[in-house]
Amino acid sequence: PGLHLFAIAFALEVSVGKTNTMMALNNSNVLLPCTFTTCIGFQDLVFTWYFNSTELVGDSIYHGKIKNKATEPTLVTRNPRVDFVGSTTKKDNNISILLNNVEFSDAGKYTCHVKNPKEKNAQHNATIFLTVVHKMVETDNTVTLIIVGVVGGLIGLLILFMLIKRVVLFIIKKTQDGKKECLVSSSGNDNTENGLAGSKAEQKAPPKA
Fold first, then answer.
1. Which CATH superfamily, name and number, covers 13-133?
2. What is the pTM of this model?
């Protein structure tokens, strides 16, 4: 088990980002991203971009080699419409390419393949699915705007209700406080006039005859 984990830790990995589907406008240029990672470094690494195939180097649209981390890739073969736009001497081992003047026939599967002799010729690849369109379709946000408007309106009403509730409660509290003051004051008067005064009179000793 220990050896198995060790092997996983030093495995070569290739990534094309969070999503592997892309859309490009006809006659535009599109960036096909790809990076690779390896914990033990690389020596004489070979990378190849394939279009709708992963079998032969002859079917590749870009084929390059990298001597080591201190050098940038050297070109072996490439399609005339493909340019290398990555860099392997910086932080990320970026081997992205740019496909120029995209045509409808360029739609399909693009595979970024890497082979590292330093890892006993370990190989790994990642794939991008490219769709080419005549024009970019604008997203209809009407429904979203309606939902946002309704939700916003409901939140606004809720806030208004809360404010009205606070004001009403405040008024009721003030009114009740006023009534309490009246009750206390009238109760004091009653005690003075009727209760306490009478009590004190009754408690006095009768005059001596």
1. Immunoglobulins (2.60.40.10)
2. 0.61
